[in-house]
Amino acid sequence: MGKKGKRDKKGKGAEKTLAKMEKKVSRRAKKEEEDLEALIAEFQSLDAKKTQVIESSCPPPSPRLNCSLCAHPERDELILFGGEYFNGQKTYLYNDLYIYHIRKNSWAKLDIPNPPPRRCAHQAAVVPTAGGQLWIFGGEFASPNGEQFYHYKDLWVLHLATKTWEQIKAPGGPSGRSGHRMVVCKRQLIVFGGFHESARDFIYYNDVYAFNLDSFTWSKLAPAGMGPAPRSGCQMTPTPEGNIIVYGGYSKQRIKKDVDKGTLHTDMFLLKAEGAAKEEDRWSWSRLSPSGVKPSPRSGFAVAAAPNNRCLLFGGVHDEEEEESIEGDFFNDIYFYDIGKNRWFPAQLKGPKAERRKRRRGRQAEAEAAGGEELQLPPPQGPLEIIKEVVAEDGTVMTIKQLIPGAAEDKDRSGSEEEEEEEEEGGALGQPVEPCPRSSAMVAVKHGVLYVYGGMFEVGDRQVTLSDLHSIDLHRMEQWKVLLEMDPKTQEWLEESESDEEEDDDVEGAEGGEEEEEEESSEEESEDEEGEQQHPAVQPGEAQPQYVARTEQYWLRLARGHMGPEAKDKKVLKVAHAMAKTFYEDALQMS
User: Fold this and answer.
1) DSSP letters of 88-123?
2) In a 10 Å sphere around its CB, with 0-12 CB exposed, 13-18 middle and 19+ buried, how is residue 259 labelled?
3) Spatial contact of 161 and 141, defined as CB atoms under 8 Å apart
4) Helix (H, G, I), strand (E, B) or coil at 30
5) How many Å from the N-terminal Cα to the C-terminal Cα in the chain?
6) Where is the composition biased (Basic residues) (predicted)?
7) pLDDT at 353 over 60
8) SS3 assignment, position 215
9) Which residue, among 145, 461, 201, has the nearest Cα to 324 in the 3D structure?
10) Are strands 123-127 and 188-197 parallel, antiparallel or unpaired?
11) Computed over its alpha carbons, how large is the radius of gyration of the chain?
12) What's the confidence (pLDDT) of residue 417?
């Protein structure tokens, strides 16, 4: 009894602290939001000039983050709404609506009168009612300088059959927020978590609200049991039984004045509906302890429902804080969670053809018998973690991690002409076509096919916002398909000094623009140009591991020169190997 009473008091104390913090944030944010309301109203007045529905074919959407991507409940279409874009100096917010036609691999823009105001980090969910509905709740609007925020608490529905927007004004809903999660469960929209931020303060939520799609009313749920700590950006998945699974997420705490500490959550919870009453469901939280291989800690991952009673997690980033800098490890892996078995496991690509794998194994056995070079390069038996790094002139490093499944390993480039022709038809010649590692990607599943749109990664202080589109059949899990490519070189980045030009050069070099890189660097950095001319050449028939081992000392000296004497040996070694591998790959492309 004593322990229970102590726990109850602790819970009530936490509720009081949360309420005080919410009032404090609300007071300070009110002034900011009043300032932004005028700007939002100005944008809405422009939208009010739209008087008719116009659907027109168009190029793919411009690069953006934190938009929503949903599969149409009846048609072979994906629906993209809103989002934001930052070019280094200014933040742009959107409220445009795009339709991706899956069969045609083409985009169309839908201009519909009276849309929701511009926003990002909102949530969207589709229901099949009356030809399909797209529901949108919350999100945020930011000032152009990115220093003031307005958090929405409005609810909208897009009637897909009639192509009309409608704002649903129902009292008692969640407070303004972004980074929350919303799913359809039975005939309800369930909203969990999120955060509210002003210029000086922030607050994270772990409350749960339900919106009834029949009565159009909000209700705040009060689940029994100990639920998740406040967070945003978590995984939220409904189960066939009408329960909800919550995994991971991110939150931060104020340690002292102007010092915040972020937390990557890796716990998992089940929100279970108790009882059979339709509108009087009682809910309870319980903690899950899944088996299998869980995703590594990360934020910015994307989630979607998958076939066979599973949900999936894609990509994300793990930020490592070192002294005053933050270094991000980006991912492009897929993890499945089997809802029925309560088990995580990493996805592995099977490769395009089983017969091709047999031929490869046969050639490897022959090569081993003949004592050929392939003896030194046995393929990995399981998934191989590859670390890629882009190194700027000033030593800035972007670290990218990706998992290459062993079955789809592309080490075997010396196959027969027949196999090369087959792979050429696949458009790759053995080159992997998976999405590059990223965070904040948008994902949707239609007919068992996963679509991944956009996202972002970082090179030093530069943010690269993507707008590419990839797909993979979740039933076959053979290989990724590139539906739309993007060249990061074409993306503007505005900053004050020459550092951006150098970072632009790095991106070009990574995409095969080595000649331009050498020409521009020759005008500004003659010493670096001389160093490039003296890089150890790749010898005929030399494999990448052999080249890296033979030239390691050279690249270590070069990396140390870039990074300075205070850099850690382990980090210098990583950078040196990344530089060697990049040079090796570029040399192969140029040959």
Assistant:
1) SS-EEEEEEEEEEETTTTEEEEEE-SSPPPS-BS-E
2) exposed
3) no
4) helix
5) 77
6) 1-10
7) yes
8) coil
9) 461
10) unpaired
11) 26
12) 42
What is the phi-psi region of residue 7: left when phi exceeds 0, alpha when psi lies from -120 to 50, beta otherwise? alpha
Q: Tell me if the pTM is above 0.85.
A: no
Q: Give me the pLDDT at residue 333, please.
A: 96
* φ, ψ for residue 518, nearest 5 deg: -70, -40
Burial 380-399 (b: 16+ CB within 10 A, else e): eeebeeeebbbbbbebbbbb
* DSSP per-residue letters across 494-555: --SSTHHHHHHHHHHHHTT-HHHHHHHHHHH-HHHHHHHHTSPPPPTT--HHHHHHHHHHHH
Q: Is 222 exposed, middle or buried (0-12, 13-18, 19+ CB in 10 A)?
A: exposed
3-class secondary structure, 425 = helix
Cα(25)–Cα(19) distance, rounded to whole angstroms? 10
Burial class from Cβ neighbours inside 10 Å (0-12, 13-18, 19+) for residue 371 reads: exposed
For residue 39, the one-letter residue type is: L
Whole-number Å distance between alpha carbons of 507 and 404: 22
Domains of the chain are 27-349+434-490 (2.120.10.80), 544-590 (no CATH)
3-state secondary structure 545-589: HHHHHHHHHHHHHHHHHHHCCCCCHHHHHHHHHHHHHHHHHHHHH
Q: What angle do CA 65, 68, 73 make, to 5 degrees?
A: 155
pLDDT of residue 319 exceeding 60, the answer is: yes
Classified as helix, coil or strand, 47 is helix
